[in-house]
Design brief:
2 copies of one chain form a homodimer. By secondary structure, chain A is mostly helical. Chain A has 11 helices and no strands. In chain A, helix 10 runs antiparallel to helix 11. The structure holds a DNA duplex.
DNA sequence: AATTTATGATACATATATGTCCCATAAAAG
DNA sequence: CTTTTATGGGACATATATGTATCATAAATT
């Protein structure tokens, strides 16, 4: 899609978002000068495209959400069951490590910004729906609070990301570990003597 | 213990550490002025006691580690099994929510500071020893990488802390949830048809 | 090819957090 | 009670990130 906006702008924006994702992900106090340099873009251009630092953070946050949405959109269609959807989710999300790192490190900054917080809460609501579907299906225990399950998913993202960074494990193996931990951890105990 | 240091210094230090724990935990870009004010202490006093902001962060980090150590020291003695030690650990650690929040939000700042990083790594090594003990005992699966189990513990701390902040759940219930998720999640599957 | 438009470099203004110094005062220590 | 010592407040210096404005140049759109 050509999109009726100047090609130079699109190029600059892409470079800035990518650089910001990397630098702000690694160190949330990275400077706009650092980001401009990393993006091979003049500092003026950055300020022309994003009025303030918060707007840049917001733009990157939105970008991350779009990535997540794109990666997780078709889960419910492709999955055999509501539970399996979580497996596909881990497989789809773990490769987005840069975006994950950004959202992780974002943390407190997100709470202050209403727009970023809205994004974050929407993600959680989507996961909550998946949890409820799995409960309705009978594959997740109704004893487990939905809020716990949702936060557990986030936590498993975190654990996967950290483990992937420390050890040299590929995303697929991590996704399997995460899903096994998730499902066996809060699955309804089928047959117990 | 009177400790041969002036009573005023001890009082100031305690107030500063407490204020820093709270403010830096909530927003890692809190100002030294903010902290001094919250501690009801002159800014000069803060600078007299801690030469730089990093030193203050370090001091708070050390304080947190001491709290964790104090809370988890007797686990292995009191626990019936290596696995149960994790249950006691969750119960002991979750009430330290301020310290947890600080260490969570610390994140990237810790990696930069060698002393804080050393503290962090030591914590992980201690947990790794507990994991290995539980593996040796046969209550945790040897299939699960120790690194994964360690990061899972951290992740469950995170999930517990977030859930506790969102919902109004008491620490004991959260500890039970976390332990159940942990043990059923990576436990050796006893009898499976 | 002509025109429009984004770019990058530079200079400039500003706010703010950090860190230092000093001194009268108050509170411990002896 | 006397001496020692930490405190708090204020003034001061400094570095640095943010944000603004200008303009010649280069790259797109037409």
């Amino acid at each position: 899609m050509p999109s009726n906006v100047d090609a130079r702008i699109r190029k600059s924006q892409a470079a800035i978002i990518s650089a910001g994702l990397e630098l702000l992900g690694r160190n949330s106090e990275a400077t706009l000068s650092d980001i401009a340099q990393q993006a091979s873009v003049g500092r003026s251009t950055l300020y022309r495209l994003y009025e303030t630092k918060e707007q840049l953070m917001r733009a990157i946050g939105v970008h991350c959400m779009q990535c997540f949405d794109a990666a997780t959109q078709h889960l419910e269609k492709d999955a055999d069951s509501a539970l399996q959807a979580f497996h596909l989710m881990f497989k789809a999300v773990l490769p987005l490590s840069a975006e994950m790192e950004f959202l992780m490190k974002l943390g407190d900054a997100a709470e202050q910004d209403p727009e970023l917080d809205a994004i974050w809460q929407k993600q959680k609501r989507d996961i909550a729906l998946m949890v409820d579907a799995a409960k309705a299906e009978g594959s997740l225990s109704r004893q487990v609070p939905t809020a716990w399950a949702v936060n557990l998913v986030e936590a498993l993202f975190y654990a996967s990301w950290v483990t992937g960074a420390e050890e040299q494990m590929d995303h697929d193996a991590l996704a399997d570990l995460a899903f096994a931990t998730f499902s066996h951890g809060i699955a309804q105990q089928a047959t117990r003597a």
